[in-house]
Design brief:
Oligomer: single chain
Number of helices: 1
Helix content: under 10%
Strand order of the largest sheet: 2-20-22-21-15-14-3
Structural class: mainly beta
Number of domains: 3
Number of strands: 46
Shape: globular
Largest sheet: 7 strands, mixed
Distance between the termini: 19 Å
């Protein structure tokens, strides 16, 4: 749970017209920030009073069983942080402010890292992601700092308004030695200015990105001080500022009111970390073995009287080794998520949705070379609908939009200079995540919906959406001109959900057994369940009633020809809300259901409960 205090509304952005989908940065090269006063000037030139929001199995030394699930990532070989990790020997679980260490041989919790505070604490850690690398455990998240101070809203010769501000957020990266997993030992701890945004691990290099909104700090008298974009190794006290290392920049025509800080750590070396910063505000990232793509929003006002404008997404390509900016461009609209970005065979592919000032919506696919020079585009795609899922797979792209039905578009990307839509399939509902089964078959985790046209007594028309639940849809795309839905299977009811529908890291697809493991929670608001509890000594019994709720694992067989339910494993029911399943993983012949209050261990063949690891 993150504490946040917002001091202003950050601006977002939109573009209109077919020709304005793409926009080159013609305003010059990067501008190096040469002094801290330059930051003050940049901020004060934009606002009379500064306001801002508060913002395959690894071969490591601790690995045991080599048959274990890994985090579902966008790019094979580029790891992504998650609340659960395993190396076959250990399972690491972020449960609130406690990191649990589980031994898979004994199925016992053998260690923990706990963040506890006293009443005088001014710094609070909120872990959100972990990695396992060799004998190291990396924990990352945000730090809420409460240092007091006065925050001026307006300051001029005649007027002085001020308010007390409570705090701000930074990012922490803690590296623990797991030689003895029962007693994790902190080796290094880094604090990066700005709230934690995202991370990636490629080979031995950890990439961490933060959004820093508090560029200016104030003392009790209202005195200003630049809050450097910097990283501090707290065990030694060493601080590296991107201002001092001459690696902080302004993007001409794109400067924002916050810093994006990019940190790179070599986990095999004692070398100093590398930090690069630029004025902006990150939305999403894409990382492969050579490149870092960042996408950030801007809102550009085109009519000062009405406030109308256009939403832009700036695309920035950095060299992953040097963290130098190599190219930038802007497109109209916004991106759905990280799957809206992709690099293949030297070309960058981007999917976007735009809303015009008159409320019209449409979508586009763009292809750029690595210099972010445009190669070709498909614009005004699926007008009146918005993108709900994207997957780029080699020379093909798959796009799902939604308003009334779920069109699955097949995009031919084989010629980057002439991309085209080759086929379209319309089915009820819409997929929110697409996953390859093979080169010619993919499945979607989808909302199972029916759209019913309605007309009232006055002739007004609208669409009523009836939700039936969530389903797994299997698509055959072997003929790109005629994609077909082979089969669909409803996995939860009208009020059910699975985190895998909006978080790809919760998807576990075992390709050897063709089994998809989905954590789920389902509710039945037509059935009431009552339970009687013993009161405290001297008190009467009491009865608590609520609607029926269950949570567990849906085990689904997904092949190139069909989808079938193998087993529903119910773990939590009714009022057991701390046992709602958030993640599933397997190690050897065991299946693990991860909940906030414990881990449930099942036989992977019979699906019988073996044991429960209570926290």
């Amino acid at each position: 749970m993150k504490k946040s205090i917002v001091f202003f509304a950050a601006l977002l952005l939109m573009l209109t017209g077919c020709s304005s989908w793409y926009q080159r940065n013609e305003s010059g090269s990067l501008v190096l920030i040469t002094s801290r006063s330059m930051i003050k000037d940049l901020i004060s030139s934009r606002y009379s009073g500064y306001t801002g929001p508060f913002a395959e199995a690894s071969k490591d030394s601790l690995s045991g069983n080599t048959n274990y699930s890994q985090t579902n990532t966008q790019i094979q070989g580029i790891d992504e942080g998650d609340i659960v990790k395993t190396n076959g020997r250990l399972i690491i679980h972020v449960a609130g402010q406690v990191i649990r260490v589980i031994d898979t041989d004994t199925s016992k919790a053998i260690g923990k890292i706990e963040y506890v505070y006293d009443e005088k604490a001014t710094k609070f850690y909120y872990p959100s992601e972990v990695y396992l690398y060799n004998d190291k455990l990396i924990v990352m998240g945000s730090i809420s700092k409460y240092n007091g101070g006065i925050y001026p809203m307006v300051k001029d010769a005649d007027t002085r308004m001020s308010m007390f501000w409570i705090g701000y957020q930074d990012t922490f990266v803690s590296i623990y030695n797991l030689t003895d997993p029962t007693k994790p030992v902190l080796d290094k701890n880094y604090e990066l200015t700005g709230g934690f945004h995202s991370s990636r691990l490629t080979d031995n290099e950890l990439l961490v990105i933060a959004n820093q909104y508090n560029l200016i700090m104030y003392d009790d008298n209202g005195g200003e001080k630049v809050n450097d974009p910097a990283v501090t190794e707290t065990t030694s006290g060493t601080t590296i500022s991107s201002l001092d290392t001459k690696s902080a920049y302004v993007l001409p025509g794109k400067q924002g009111d916050s810093f994006v800080n990019i940190l790179k750590l070599d986990l095999d070396s004692s070398a100093d970390p590398k930090i690069t910063s630029f004025l902006g505000n990150i939305q999403t990232i894409y990382v492969d073995f050579d490149n870092l793509l960042l996408a950030q929003y801007r809102y550009e006002v085109t009519n000062q009287t009405t406030g109308e404008g256009k939403t832009l997404t700036d695309l920035l390509r950095f060299d992953l080794e040097s963290l130098e900016l190599k190219a930038d461009a802007s497109i109209e609209g916004y991106l759905l998520n990280q799957f809206s970005l992709d690099i293949f065979d030297g070309n960058i592919r981007v999917a976007s949705t735009k809303w015009s000032n008159d409320g019209k919506v449409s979508n586009a696919i763009h292809v750029f070379n690595l210099a972010l020079e445009p190669q070709s585009s498909i614009v005004n795609l699926a007008e009146g609908e918005s993108i709900r899922a994207v997957r780029f797979m080699g020379e093909k792209g798959y796009l799902v939009t939604f308003e009334n039905v779920d069109p699955l578009f097949v995009i031919d990307l084989s010629n980057p200079k002439s991309i085209k839509v080759t086929g379209e399939l319309k089915v009820p509902g819409f997929s929110t995540y697409l996953h390859p089964v093979s080169d010619t078959v993919l499945f979607g985790i989808a909302e199972d919906l029916e759209v019913v046209p309605m007309t009232d007594q006055y002739g007004n028309k609208w669409n009523s959406v009836n939700r039936f639940g969530m389903k797994i849809s299997l698509f055959d795309v072997s003929d790109p001109t005629k994609p077909t839905e082979l089969k669909s299977l409803r996995v939860v009811g009208q009020y059910g959900y699975t985190e895998a529908s909006y978080n790809h890291r919760a998807v576990v697809y075992d390709t050897e057994r063709d089994l998809l493991y989905l954590p789920y929670t389902d509710s039945d608001y037509t059935t009431q369940v009552c339970e009687t509890y013993e009161g405290k000594e001297g008190e009467d019994k009491y009865t608590y009633c609520n609607f029926k709720v269950e949570s567990g694992i849906k085990v689904v067989r997904v092949t190139e020809t069909g989808v079938e339910l193998v087993k529903s494993i119910v773990i939590a029911a009714n009022n057991e809300y701390t046992n709602l399943v958030s993640r599933v993983l397997y190690v050897g012949d065991k299946l693990y259901a991860i909940t906030y209050s414990g881990t449930f261990v099942y036989d992977r063949d019979s699906f019988e409960l073996i044991t429960t690891i209570k926290y």
